[in-house]
Each structure stands twice: as structure tokens, then as C-alpha cells.
Amino acid sequence: MHGEPKYPEDFKHFNYVNPLAPKGGDVKLAATGTFDSFNGFIIKGNPAAGLGLIYDSLLTSSADEAFTEYGLLAETVETDAERTYVTFTLRKDAYWHDGKPITADDVIWTFNTLYEKGAPFYRFYYGSVAEAQKVDERTVKFTFKPGENRELPLILGQLNVLPKHYWEDRDFEATTQEPPLGSGPYKIDSFEAGRHVTYRRNPEYWGAKHPANVGLYNFDTIRYDYYRDATVQIEAFKGGEFDFRAENSSKAWATSYNIAEVDAGVIVKEELAHERAAGMQGFVFNTRRTKFQDPQVRRALSYVFDFEWSNANLFYGQYSRTRSFFDNSELAARGLPEGEELEILEQFRGRIPDEVFTTEYVPPSTDGSGRNRANLKVAVELLREAGWQIRDKKLTNVETGEVMTFEVLLVSPLFERIVNPMAKSLRRIGIDVSVRTVDAAQYRRRLDTFDFDMVTTVWGQSLSPGNEQRDFWSSDAADREGSRNLAGIKDPVIDELIELVIAAPDRESLVQRVRALDRVLQWGFWAIPQFHSKVDRVIYWDKFDHPEQTPTTGTSILRWWIDKGRESTLSERRRVMGKG
Hints:
By secondary structure, the chain is of the alpha+beta class. Among the domains are: about 50-165, 3-Layer(aba) Sandwich (D-Maltodextrin-Binding Protein, domain 2), CATH 3.40.190.10; about 280-530, Dipeptide-binding Protein, Domain 3 (Dipeptide-binding Protein, domain 3), CATH 3.10.105.10. A hairpin with a 5-residue loop joins strand 4 (about 75-80) and strand 5 (about 85-90).
């Protein structure tokens, strides 16, 4: 994205893989909810886990750089200094699973179809592309609309190319349970809709020896079994029903695996540090609801969440408080703005809160005792200033008589223990709050149509933010079904800041522009910040090995391999432990 790539033109493999990792063996993983489609590019349906395994992209990212891509399907990449276009020339030896070569027609068809018929994300991501032009059978040129958007060559490189000859006689906008044709390292081998899907490594995969793939895709098969929720998954894992789990529940990590198999090393419990941006996880206000349109109301309600008590009593002290939309990275706005960031923000003085210039944003905190009366008093005063008062034990809008009530929508029962204490505090200040947990399909549909009052979400961030910010925060995205602008943000200043981020000419300018965007988002109180972890928590049956080096973005089981010696003794070790 900025500067020069870390790896030379003739690199043999990435530093964070084992190039000698043995191939073979089977791995079973778990997914939550259900699936009914193998088309993961549209808004309809629930796509199966692991679909990315069957596709290749034009370029592929390294995991130890902020944003650098290397050729995959594309043999060469050409662009100009201003990045007004990008040209990809495909490899001669890249072909589909049916043996047909991947062509420029496939690339152009894919781009046009995703833009016109795919999920809304693609229209935001590729919105600055003016034209996709076929140069010859293996070469495609993308020309860009006027304006600075230096990220476009890279995000076009992320394009998962689809086979035109397979899809052109099928309805791309419909869900499908027919395994689609791909070009990637795996094929769909078998499945039962809603219950399991198995991918088998393609022994004739064209890219098996490509430097960017060396050390990856080591398992013969990868199977995903579906479970109703995380609680059931954990018990199934301990029973040996699947092999590996990335644990995102601090309670489960602290209490659910205190078993003999862990003590004996038959199950390995491991924390792997990472340096990736945490993004923002929070309770999101849907500002399409009138009750949440006043930022003063949103600010008041942020005083109700007692992170310090929750971290000590619910999370076993495992989390750090999130305060930035780009937390755990140099992109996070801290202190007061200065230098280039201040110059950027000065352009918007009078259109953004004065606190942006005078006060560092810090989420409300407590002493962790669970007695949150001081913060609740602040919340009540802020609500009074916003025109809400407690009448007959109910928070009531003075002008309209509306009683404050809302629903917190969840998809996992595990999160109820986090929401319920906050809901109790909300009720203490007269707000009638309900907590509702629904199945994965209903949850996704309600999010896609913005049919909720408050949800918990994670806006994940890379170390090189760009065009995806339109999908997160832009006015256009607020009205597009299926977008990630769950908060419903419609702010011309934020729209302008997004475009400044996209147009950043170098790394330092990118950092300063992202900090400016972050600071304005912080003072918009679009979400009540929650927490993040600086480690990946993984637990697995002792049949795997993995590279010693964990890259910036964290661990991935696709870089792991099976240790045949340990696997051969695992059954006997499990039998001894009473799990055979």
C-alpha cells in the first residue's frame, strides 16, 4: 500500500510458515447455527463455513505487513504512480477445477456480477472503479474514477475470481446447495445442509507450489460440524467430536477446560499473542430509532456499562477496555489532536463536537465494586439535559411522553451474562430493557434489515483502513440493506473523513487521517465500547503442530499441520483418560 514490499520478487515462502510442513490427515472444526447455501457472495441465505477454501484471488496478502499483496492468479500487476488504473495479467497455468483455464472474461464477469448482484459491500468496496476492460485473453485493465484512491489496485487484487462458464446459466442471486466450481486448494467433498460440510484438498491444485501457498493448506480434509451454540460446542469439543477451537469466551477459557485431559497434555490450551488492530466491539445504538438520535442520550447510556466490575467478575480479568474504533494499533486517536491530525480536524470546527479539540475521549469507568451509583447519577443528569426525566419510575420524554424502552438483540446465549447486569442498571434509571436471543438465521436477517434497537457487534479493522470504511460509517451505507453501518450514521463530516482516509498518499498521512476519523467517531457515541484481547486463545487435541512465529494478524489453523507421531498415539492417550 505504501513503500516497498517486505518480500523480494524471488521469495520462496512467507517467514511465518513451515515450508516443510507435512501434508495429510483430517481436521474437524465447529461452526454455529446453520447453513443453507454455497453462495457466500449475496445477501440471501446462510453461507457454509469455509467457502473461501474453494476460490483463489488475483493477489494474496501477507500476514506480517500492514497491507501488501503478492501475485496469486495474477502473474504481473501494472499501475501508474498516481494509481489511476491497474492491469492484471493472469498466469498461464491457473485453471478451474474442471481443467479449463482462468481467463480475463472470468475476471470481468466476476467484477460486474458482484457489483450488480452481490452483497452491498461490493458496491462500496468497488465504487470508485469506472471500467473493467479486457486487453487480451489473460489481461484485464481496471480504470478508476477521478480522485485519490490509492488502495484500489490492492482491493481489486482481493477479488475472488468466479468461473463465468459455470455461473452464466445459473441464477447468481439465488441460494444454492449445488457445490460450485472453484479454483482454490480445496473442493467441497460432501455435506448435509445445516449439519456439516467437508472440504477435500485438491491434489491437482494449480497453485500448490506457489510461494505464497507454501506451508499452507496441509490437511487432506477440513470438516465443519454445526452446533446450536457455543455451550454445546464446548461440550462436543471436550468429548472429542472436533479437534480445534478458538475460544472467545473468557468464562469458558477460565472455567470450562479445567479437565484431566488438559492437565495431562492430551488437550493443549494455548495463548498466542498478536499485534492486529482490535477494531471496535460494542453495544451499538440503532440511530434509525428516534430514541437514540440524540448523541446526549447515547452518551448518557454509556455510563451504565460497568466494564471494571464485568472484567473482574465475568471475564476473569482477561480483557482490556476498548476506547477506539482502531484499538490496539498506531491508528487509535489518543491524547489531544496535534500536527497533521489537528489540521485536518480544523477544517470541520463548528461541525463536530468541541470536545474533539479539548478533551481526550475515555469511556466511563468505575472502581469495580459493582456499586455504580455515581455513574448512574451522571447518566440521569445527562438524560435530564436531553429532555428525559424519571416519572413514576419510568424514564419519560418530557415533550412527547414517550417512555424509554428498547430490546438488546443477541445471537449467543453466552452474551446474556454480559448484557443482563447492564440491563439491570438501565432498569434502575427507569428504562425498560428486554434481552432477546434468536437463532443465527433470524439474527442475520434482522441485522441486514436494521430491525433492532441495540446489538453487540465487532467492526474489525486492518492496519491499513480504506474503502471498507464506507460500508461501516457512510451516509450511503446507512440506507443500504445488508451494510455494516449498523448504527445508521449519516454525517457529512464522517463521509468527508472517510474519503480523506481512502486518498491518503503515504503511511504517515494515513495514520493521521484515520486518527481524525477515529476521534470524530469516538465523540459521536455510536456504540458503548466493550473490550478486546491481545492474544488468540486456542485449544486443541494434541495432534497438531504450528509455526513458532505468529505474524501480526494472529494465528491461523490453515498454517498448522498434523504431527503423525502424536496423532498415532492420541487414541490410546484418550482411552487412558477415559475418552476413547
